[in-house]
Amino acid sequence: MQMHNFFLKKRFDQYFLKDKNIAKKIVNYLSFENYNTVVEIGPGLGILTQYLLTNNPYHHIFLIEIDEELIFFLKKFLPISKNQIIHKDFLKWNPEEIDLQNFAIIGNFPYNISSQILFHILRYNHYIPECIGMFQKEVAKRITSTHGKKTYGILSVLVQTFYDVKYLFTVKKKVFFPTPNVQSAVISLKRKSENLNCNKNILFQCVKIAFNQRRKKLKNSLQLYRHIPNFHKIPFLNKRAEELSVKEFLQLTKEIEIRK
Ligand code: SAH
What we know:
33% helix, 7-stranded mixed sheet, RNA binding, rRNA processing, EC 2.1.1.182, Helicase, Ruva Protein, domain 3, 9 helices
């Protein structure tokens, strides 16, 4: 699709993918296991969208784009109903608004809000069985990192609590317009089948506090909980956040929860 006189908007972090083979490759990672609706975040000029439409003509597709100029363009050129093209900030979008309860997410995401996008996905994880997304490479590495590594952190633990994650492939800068300063990578998230058996609020709080002081032992960083009965009997207190696996963070959360 050609587009003339379009003003790139820095504030929306617009880097358009030029390489159609990469676009196709990303879309082909959608498994369509247990869902038939896909929501694309930030379709831009629709390079991924085109493949979503041609490869999967029988599936439902919704696009969420913040830039009004792009919305105008997409509504004009895409062969889908206008109410599938939603002009909205994804971070303020609630799937219940359009009665969506089971859908995958795809996108070449705006990198300046990648963590917030992930947190938003985690908020609605019960509706989202799968996500295929392009992130800044460094963020993709952090999401897929494991304990003991330097890149292991809040995003790794929280995303991997709910999803099995996979680093799919790295994408070079030169396939975007304009050329970004950083490399990119595509990852997949597939929701874990087992139910999370612990309190989401405590888990998020505990993981954030522990990693915000990652060099401290947990008995020092988790002082917030020191008044709960038998605090000292909680396991892992002599370890540091980066030494705990995702499973161990869940165990820790449960231990805090039962004592509270
Ligand atoms: N998918 C396109 C564009 C990627 S650039 C491609 O691969 O070429 C990121 C896109 O996200 C832009 O279209 C930008 O306008 C949009 N965007 C930025 N912030 C957004 C937000 N908060 N909600 C929805 N879309 C957003």
